[in-house]
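Narrative summary of target 7.
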Amino acid sequence: MSTAQKILLVDDSAFTLRFHSELAKSIGLEPLIAQGGEKGIQIFQEFQPTFVLCDIMMPDMDGYEVLEILKESKPDIIFYFISSESNDTIIQKAKSLGATGVLEKPLTSQMLQKILEKKG
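Modeled conformation, tokenized:
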């Protein structure tokens, strides 16, 4: 059984999920991947990851809905939105819903390392 901290990656893009998964592995995290919001909720409930990185715009369920549902079961969730565009409106909405922060795509291993350091 792995002792690595789990990170749930939720996005509708298979390419983005693969890329972010490799980044997470490169810094010692165990990535769990979900293509879409509904799948992300299922995986979160099953595996209870330490961190969640979730795209905002997805066809089945947007990231805001995912956060609202996950906050019901785990109010202190460490949840970051990832978006190709980050502006004041997105940041304000994310904070008002209780997100930990907003990260702009493309992610880097340094960005993920900072998330780990804040948790520690």
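The radius of gyration is 13 Å.
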